[in-house]
Structure formats: structure tokens, C-alpha cells
Task: inverse folding
């Protein structure tokens, strides 16, 4: 993936190295293996994906806590551009989403309001609660920010073998970011609030099924970004698409559940199977059309 010519975003809030304020007593910025195992167990009992899941379904559902006041950013941080290599990469991907989604929204007479992307280390405060690296990247609709601990990218490669360590891993990382931007697009279009309202009257299985549709649509929206970004900047290189598909497959619910407990429980899916995630991303990539991302067919919201 070539990102040198992608436009940079100024909507980066770099909290890396900043101590999180108000962290509950007994917690630190990072978490130990014991906590990871406990969260994994609790996740499966509750029917939610426990760790390292693109989308952070529990945070997308943060609209349920919309009465919570938005917390200010930790002191010492400001919105701008991070200067290190990882910060420049994130800024380039985010900047390209701003260009593409502004154009797509304008074609339908809408105005795209770009989100802020918060880069943090270990843990930080969000308007949806405390963000920890073990949650993976997520979008918080309450403050319209994407939260990203970039160590997640290393885990994609080393822990989940979601890419092979070559330069093509960068496109996998871009897929992670643009999936979260897809949730912001859903929020601006009013989809997330309608989903949250519908989930209030559902049992856990029904709520999970609706959440899967949310996540698969975000995968498709990430594909739409890739479609138009490639048309404009020709930034893809051989192996990039395959790397993104490998990543989408690696974090499918079925594969993660088999990795953790040896078998899959479809009723506990919250993000979709490996096959579903790859298929919906490719649907957006091939067509570049919002109509191709209707994962809610047959569902009234």
C-alpha cells in the first residue's frame, strides 16, 4: 500500500503516553494475562466477542448510555497531526476517508462531518466508558470519535496471523480504521440510533443478530472507501486485497470462537463469520455503491 500521496487529516488526537484520568481503582493502563483470560470467559458467557474485535460492538452500542456526559480529553493532548511514522499512516488513511465520504455524501445532498480519531496507549477515557487496548479499535457514537491503540496492529500480525508481516499489512491496518469510520457513517445516516432503539426490545440472541448486520455493513462501507480511494490515488499494491481478506477472515466470529473454545456458537456472533466479513467487504470494493451494503434487508428499523 502506498500512502505517501494520500491527504493528511487534522482530526487526530494523540493521547499516546498520556496517563488516563479517572481510571477505576485497581486498574492500570495495560492489562495482564489474567485479566485477558477473565474477559475472554465473561465474553463468551454473555454472548459477546471478548477481545481484539474490530468494531467493539459493546462501544458501538454505547448509545444506550447516551445520557452519560462527554468527558474532556486528557490534558496535554490536542487535535492535529501526529508526526511519527504510525501517526502519519493513520492520518493519511483518515484523510482519505474524509475526502471520499465528503464526496459520497455531497452526491446525495448531505454534509459529511468527519470524526476525530484518538490514538492512545493502554487505556483512555471515552464518552462510552473507559477504552482499553484489549477491546480493540472502536467507534463511540456519543462523542463521534474512533479510539485506536495502534498495538492492535501488531497483535493482528503476531497473535491472529491476520497478515504475513509484509508491507501489505498496511492495507489490513487501513481496513481496521475504515471499518470504524464505517460506523461513523452509519451514525450520521441515523442507522446506529435506530439499531439501538430496536435492540431495547430484543433478547440477547436477537440483539446479537442485529449487531452482526451493523458490523457487516461497516465492512462493506470500508470496501466502498477502498473502491474510490483506489480510483483517485491508485494506492493499492499486489497482495493488498488478499491481506485485507486474510484479516477479515481472521477476526470472523466463527474463527475466533473456534480458536478460543474449539467450536462456534452462531447465536453468540456479534460481528459475522469469516465468510460473511470477506463477502461484504468485497461487495463494497467491487461496486462502490451504498445500495450494495444493505445488510438490513427484511429488517424493520
Result:
Amino acid at each position: 500500500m502506498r500512502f505517501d500521496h494520500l491527504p493528511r487529516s487534522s482530526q487526530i488526537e494523540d493521547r499516546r503516553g498520556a496517563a488516563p484520568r479517572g481510571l477505576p481503582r485497581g486498574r492500570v493502563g495495560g492489562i495482564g494475562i489474567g485479566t485477558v483470560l477473565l474477559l475472554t470467559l465473561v465474553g463468551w458467557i454473555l454472548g459477546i466477542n471478548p477481545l481484539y474485535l474490530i468494531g467493539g460492538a459493546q462501544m458501538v452500542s454505547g448509545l444506550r448510555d447516551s445520557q452519560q456526559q462527554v468527558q474532556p480529553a486528557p490534558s496535554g493532548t490536542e487535535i492535529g497531526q501526529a508526526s511519527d511514522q504510525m501517526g502519519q499512516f493513520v492520518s493519511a488513511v483518515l484523510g482519505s476517508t474524509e475526502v471520499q465520504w465528503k464526496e459520497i455524501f455531497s452526491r446525495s445532498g448531505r454534509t459529511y462531518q468527519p470524526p476525530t480519531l484518538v490514538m492512545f496507549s493502554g487505556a483512555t477515557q471515552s464518552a462510552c466508558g473507559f477504552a482499553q487496548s484489549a477491546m480493540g479499535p472502536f467507534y463511540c457514537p456519543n462523542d463521534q470519535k474512533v479510539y485506536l491503540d495502534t498495538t492492535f496492529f501488531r497483535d493482528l500480525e503476531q497473535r491472529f496471523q491476520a497478515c504475513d508481516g509484509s508491507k501489505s499489512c498496511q492495507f489490513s491496518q487501513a481496513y481496521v480504521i475504515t471499518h470504524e469510520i464505517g460506523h461513523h457513517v452509519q451514525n450520521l445516516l441515523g442507522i446506529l440510533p435506530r439499531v439501538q432503539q430496536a435492540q431495547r426490545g430484543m433478547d440477547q440472541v436477537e440483539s446479537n443478530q442485529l449487531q452482526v448486520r451493523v458490523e457487516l455493513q461497516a465492512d462493506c462501507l470500508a470496501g466502498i472507501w477502498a473502491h474510490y480511494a483506489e480510483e483517485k490515488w491508485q494506492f493499492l499494491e499486489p497482495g493488498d486485497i488478499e491481506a485485507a481478506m486474510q484479516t477479515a477472515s481472521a477476526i470472523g466470529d466463527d474463527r475466533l470462537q473456534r480458536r478460543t473454545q474449539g467450536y462456534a456458537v452462531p447465536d453468540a456472533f456479534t460481528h459475522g463469520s469469516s465468510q460473511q466479513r470477506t463477502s461484504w467487504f468485497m461487495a463494497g470494493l467491487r461496486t462502490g455503491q451504498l445500495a450494495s451494503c444493505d445488510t438490513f434487508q427484511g429488517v424493520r428499523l
About this structure: The chain has a mean pLDDT of 78. Strands lie at 12-14, 79-80, 116-119, 123-126, 129-132, 138-140, 145-148. Residues 199 and 207 are 5 Å apart (CA to CA).
